[in-house]
């Protein structure tokens, strides 16, 4: 049956008239302390949109706090203009508050599981995207933004279930496997 859920071992199918309308980017920051997610949708995923999101976070967070952001190795996050913006804001913030404003921590390649916001993305995918039917990219973006707003009313904190040592062991195994492939 086209469009129905797949049986074990089979891929999902689409109807013959299925039309892909495009994609939307979600920039999201998860507060480990309370589970709140700050998110913004964008039509593209370039350094410009990433900088817009960083500016948004900078405005929304209280002064005197360093924002520790765990990000993947996507080139957008390492763009020269992003680095300049972070360095400039850190210099200014350090002069007034004695601490940097933004610290970017990059996850190793193939290690998205190390970024706790990926757990939120899984929930978003299951609750909104996977079985959703959207007539346009705008409809998808609206559904994501509604989910963010509703989730923010009762945020859920994500907690690592493994011990620190178990996580570090997994990192070591992942690094060894990656090095064996190179």
Would you write up a description of this structure?
The chain is an alpha+beta fold and 182 residues long. It has a single domain, classed as Nucleotidyltransferase, domain 5. Helix content is 44%, strand content 12%. The chain is built from 5 helices and 4 strands. A two-stranded antiparallel sheet has the order 1-2. It has a two-stranded parallel sheet with strand order 3-4. A hairpin with a 6-residue loop joins strand 1 (25-30) and strand 2. The radius of gyration is 19 Å and the shape is globular. The termini are far apart. The mean pLDDT is 88.
In short:
The chain has 182 residues and is α+β, with helices and mostly antiparallel strands. The chain has five helices and four strands; from the N terminus they run E-E-H-E-H-E-H-H-H.
- Describe the sheet with the most strands: 2 strands, antiparallel
- What is the count of helical runs? 5
Instruction: From the alpha carbons, calculate the radius of gyration and give it in angstroms.
Output: 19 Å
CATH superfamily: Ribonuclease H-like superfamily/Ribonuclease H
Per CATH, what is the topology? Nucleotidyltransferase, domain 5
Cα end-to-end separation: 42 Å
CATH structural class:
Alpha Beta
Order of helices and strands: EEHEHEHHH
Unreliable runs: none
Q: What class, by secondary structure content? A: alpha+beta
Fraction of residues in helix: 40-55%
Mean pLDDT: 88
> What's the number of extended β-strand segments?
4
Q: Enumerate the strands of the largest sheet in spatial order, edge to edge or round the barrel.
A: 1-2
Q: What general outline do the C-alpha atoms trace?
A: globular
Give the number of domains: 1
CATH architecture: 2-Layer Sandwich
Beta fraction? 5-15%
């Amino acid at each position: 049956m086209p469009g129905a859920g797949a049986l074990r071992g089979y891929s999902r199918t689409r109807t013959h008239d299925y039309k892909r309308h495009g994609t939307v980017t979600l920039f999201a920051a998860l507060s480990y302390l309370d589970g709140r997610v700050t998110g913004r949708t964008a039509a593209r995923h370039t350094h410009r949109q990433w900088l817009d999101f960083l500016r948004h976070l900078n405005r929304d967070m209280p002064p005197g706090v360093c924002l520790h952001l765990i990000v993947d190795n996507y080139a957008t996050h390492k763009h020269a203009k992003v680095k300049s913006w972070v360095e400039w804001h850190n210099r200014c913030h350090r002069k007034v508050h004695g601490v940097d404003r933004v610290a970017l921590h990059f996850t190793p390649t193939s290690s998205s599981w190390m970024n706790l916001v990926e757990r939120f993305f899984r929930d978003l995918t299951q609750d909104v995207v996977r079985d959703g039917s959207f007539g346009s990219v705008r409809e998808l973006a609206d559904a994501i933004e509604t989910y963010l707003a509703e989730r923010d009313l009762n945020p859920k904190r994500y907690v690592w279930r493994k011990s620190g040592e178990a996580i570090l062991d997994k990192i070591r195994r992942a690094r060894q496997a990656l090095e064996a492939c190179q």
